[in-house]
Design goal:
Helix content is 45%, strand content 5%. The chain has a two-stranded antiparallel sheet. It has a two-stranded antiparallel sheet with strand order 3-4. Strands 5-6 form a two-stranded antiparallel ribbon. Helix 8 packs across helix 9.
């Protein structure tokens, strides 16, 4: 946790957690702390366990595991119910309001929890596993990273040529191959797909601090996170 996040937790502990009305850290309180501090729930649990054991000793958080190593089973799903962070919205405040609204809606959809059976394939095998809890697995690093980015988009395209359509039907995706397919099928007669791609790329700035889905370690960039997570699988 950053110094500012630690200070917020300390203030919460001194003003609320020690009172008789807060004998344990509830799931609702954890979600609120994670939202207010913009910190990953697993990192908060680890920090509170270490610094304030009297509060966290009875905390029922079996559904949000703090993983300290690898096991042979698929990782448990992370708590992804936290809403779009104000930090992400602020980082993309340079976008037009209508575009920002579509981007936030798209990101919220991508981060929505998926069922364990949502592997997108009938057979999911391989060492590279989804760290967001949907049970996807593959033997190819490229496919794994592309799948991870369906949960945490790094690039976004909003079709410029479809801009005249209602916002509820705007074409917005975070996968280049899907956008090129759209451009070819819908606008292929008058435009080259690559031209539409260049015109439609959103100046999107993804969130920077991301936790490892295996051990909770925090990375500063997406590239750094991917390298770190791959180290667990290889």
């Amino acid at each position: 946790l950053t110094t500012r996040q630690q200070e917020f937790v300390r203030h919460w502990y001194e003003t609320l957690a020690q009172s008789e009305s807060f004998p344990i850290l509830s799931n609702e309180t954890l979600s609120a702390l994670a939202t207010l501090t913009q910190a990953h729930p697993q990192l908060l649990i680890g920090y509170i366990n270490k610094e304030y054991p009297s509060i966290s000793s009875n905390t029922p958080f079996s559904h949000i595991p703090l993983r300290t190593g690898l096991d042979k089973q698929s990782p448990q799903p992370r708590d992804t119910t936290i809403p779009i962070s104000t930090a992400l919205s602020a980082a993309n405040a340079h976008l037009l309001p209508a575009t920002l609204a579509l981007v936030e809606k798209h990101i919220a959809t991508c981060r929505r929890p998926r069922p364990q059976t949502d592997g997108r394939r009938s057979v999911n095998t391989g060492a590279y596993r989804c760290t967001f809890g949907c049970n996807y697995a593959t033997c190819r690093r490229f496919d794994w990273r592309r799948h991870e980015e369906t949960h945490e988009p790094q690039e976004i395209w909003l079709c410029t040529l479809c801009a005249h359509t209602p916002t509820d039907h705007a074409f917005i995706v975070s996968r280049k191959d899907k956008f090129l397919k759209h451009a070819k099928e819908v606008h292929g007669r008058g435009w080259k797909p690559e031209e539409v791609l260049d015109l439609s790329r959103v100046d999107f700035r993804p969130r920077s601090e991301l936790a490892c889905g295996e051990c909770g370690s925090l990375s500063r960039t997406w590239e750094e996170r991917c390298r770190h997570v791959v180290g667990h699988f290889e």
